[in-house]
Amino acid sequence: MVTTELSHSHYSSIMAKPTLKNKSSSPWFSDGFLFLGGALSALLLVWGFSTLTIPIPNENPTLKSQQNNAVSYSTPDLLFDPPDQTFYDDPEMGYNMDDNVRNWDEKRDEWLKLHPSFSDKERVLMLTGSQPSPCKNPIGDHMLLRFFKNKVDYCRIHGYDIFYNNALLHPKMFAYWAKYPVVKAAMMAHPEAEWIWWVDSDALFTDMEFKLPLQRYKNHNLVVHGWPHLIHEKRSWTGLNAGVFLIRNCQWSLDLMDAWAGMGPQSPEYEKWGKTLRSIFKDKFFPESDDQTGLAYLIAIEKEKWADRIYLEGEYYFEGYWEEIVGTFENISRKYNEIEKGVRRLRRRHAEKVSEGYGVVREEFLKEAGYGKGSWRKPFVTHFTGCQPCSGKYNEMYTAEACWNGMRSALNFADNQVMRRYGFVHPDLEDNGVSSLPFDYPKPKPKPKQ
């Protein structure tokens, strides 16, 4: 078994506080993304493209008209499960990647008819996870806990379910391939979920109010952060990032994952796929077949079969590169505080359960903020590709301090949006300490003299 770390150890160094010792990385989830983050970072730095470069097709609703629409979930009946036969009673139905699932849309529809309280079409299940064993980095488990807390906070605020997996569900699907058995099993275990939202362990939410504009994706089954011209014209393996994706719970998605995972290490054609992908995507500098390039292949080469149902999101930070984001937090905080100083309703203390409504109100004052690079809007998701918080190894493009300080600032920036509902904030993003907030914070602007 060839792991990402063994194949590319010369591209990385130690990441953590300067006192940490050199540790080896575990081939699991985001820490398997060592070289992916590095190459993506390099391309971003060279080309300097932003998330605003790809226009949204005219037939799709605009982002501004769709975001922050509060969703009223029906209350599910958790005690009701009728005795009628469903796919769960079929001994041939399995949760493994090797199990062939057919007619999933019909089976799911039958289950939902028997469980009408789960009929909400915008129900989302978030998935994330980490390796089965403790992190090699002495602070790695603490960092993963903070990243997970961030996701739990976001899901609690917006009423989403979340599942954290730390088991290897397929012994041969390691590193970045490990998430796909989890996604498939989650589809089977949660037929009530319309969308499965995978978020890598080293990605976090830095705008706790922003909601996925699901109506924007009503005609699509997979959403990833990407740039069509880099895939179709440049044939670049960094034309998308597979560390965060939204996939519909449907037969099309199962079929896509079968084709996608067919390029993985459990396949007898794994080595062949590595050569094929590298021959098409010339900037791919490592020989192994990886999921990111595999998806780019399906979009570029098998586009008639898959591309129409895949949305390459480039207008906002569906998944944003951390190095271009972390330096903006202080300015963003000042901008938001200035808005709140003039709007009493946004300063008002309120219960966390009604936070979505305040996000809708705030949106009226963010119309000029923009999205993505150069915007002063809070970035939706900040992804620390290449920093490897669990293994302690980071891409040589960065320093230990840059990764460590960036993660701490981003986590505290996000945490401030949560802790404020509890009466506290981190005054200094570089310090994990908190202070209590005074009433009517931030202090309103003085009224002009008559």
UniProtKB/TrEMBL annotation:
What Pfam families does UniProt report for this protein, alphabetically?
Glyco_transf_34
Molecular function GO labels: galactosyltransferase activity
Q: Which GO terms describe its cellular component?
A: endosome; Golgi membrane; trans-Golgi network
Membrane topology category: Single-pass type II membrane protein
Instruction: Name where it's found.
Output: Golgi apparatus membrane
Q: Does the keyword Kinase apply?
A: no
Is Lyase one of the keywords? Answer: no
Keywords, ordered alphabetically: Glycoprotein, Glycosyltransferase, Golgi apparatus, Membrane, Signal-anchor, Transferase, Transmembrane, Transmembrane helix
**Which InterPro entries does this UniProt record tie to the protein?**
Glyco_trans_34 (IPR008630), Nucleotide-diphossugar_trans (IPR029044)
* Membrane-spanning residues: 33-56
Of which family is this protein a member? Belongs to the glycosyltransferase 34 family.
Give the protein's recorded name. Answer: Galactomannan galactosyltransferase 1
Q: Which source organism does the UniProt entry give?
A: Pisum sativum
Source lineage: Eukaryota, Viridiplantae, Streptophyta, Embryophyta, Tracheophyta
